[in-house]
Amino acid sequence: MSSSTIRKALGAVKDQTSIGLAKVTSNIAPELDVLIVKTTSHDDEPAEERHIREILHLTSG
């Protein structure tokens, strides 16, 4: 296994852990915390537009 493959796998595990923690520990807006983690994941791809739209919806008064 190459180091980049291991790095990607560890990044995915870290992202899933962060999502789980955000769901359990967030007191104010857990759905917002989860969306932020998903939008700033370790993927090399841009964030999904639906996540960005939902963040804007949740944060705009």
Automatic annotation (TrEMBL):
GO (cellular component) term, any one: clathrin-coated pit
Gene3D superfamilies: 1.25.40.90
Localization in the cell: Cytoplasmic vesicle, Clathrin-coated vesicle; Golgi apparatus
UniProt keyword annotations, A-Z: Cytoplasmic vesicle, Golgi apparatus
Domain annotation ENTH: ranges: 24-61
Cited InterPro entries: AP180-like, ENTH, ENTH_VHS
GO biological process: clathrin coat assembly; clathrin-dependent endocytosis; vesicle budding from membrane
GO molecular function: 1-phosphatidylinositol binding; clathrin heavy chain binding; phosphatidylinositol-4,5-bisphosphate binding; SNARE binding
PROSITE patterns in alphabetical order: ENTH
Top-rank taxon: Eukaryota
Name the UniProt record assigns to this protein: ENTH domain-containing protein
Source organism of this protein record: Aegilops tauschii subsp. strangulata
